[in-house]
Amino acid sequence: MSWWLEYYGKTYDEWVGEKANRIYKYLEHVYFQERTIDPQELIEHIYLERIKGIGSPDYPVRKYLWKPVKGRLTDFKPSPFIKSFVAHLIGQLKARGYLLSGYVVEIAETMRVTDEAPAPRGEYMPRITIEWIDKLIALPTKEELMEICRWEPDPER
């Protein structure tokens, strides 16, 4: 099918199964640890060979070349295919009801004490954090993940 199948020594079906198993293990870890999905961690689990530098015989990919900049993946690293696949995977998990996305707003009060005569006075200051999360609320089956992994990117993009 393509050079990477020959390079990794797997058929397309074997690679789909391997990819689905890796995704399932990551999602299982996230689900039971009650964490949110981190796209970089997800990519690291799925494309383990590429991260180790086995990307191609001519040009080994090194992870430091595609680390996120300020929390966002850059335009060229990892490859557009990898980023498109992860976007597709997250979209499918949302559409199938496994992933809940939204903003989490946390408001906490902190107290600041100032030394002013005649006695110390307390002043309450709110601390607000707003964060976008992708929370896994259920685990998909490995069969569903294999179906999702049989995706091909839109050639017109």
Write the layout of secondary structure elements.
Elements: H1 3-8, H2 12-33, H3 39-46, H4 48-52, H5 80-95, E1 99-114, E2 121-136, H6 142-149
Antiparallel strand pairs: 1-2
Helix pairs in contact: 2-3, 2-6
Overview of this structure, please?
By secondary structure, the protein is an alpha+beta fold. It has one domain (3-101, 138-149). It has a two-stranded antiparallel sheet with strand order 1-2. It has helices at residues 3-8, 12-33, 39-46, 48-52, 80-95, 142-149, and strands spanning 99-114, 121-136. The chain has six helices and two strands. The longest helix has 22 residues, at 12-33.
Domain module count: 1
Number of strands: 2
- Extract low-pLDDT stretches: none
Q: Number of helical segments? A: 6
In short:
Helices cover 41% and strands 20% of the residues.
Which descriptors would you attach to this protein?
elongated, 157 residues, two-stranded antiparallel sheet
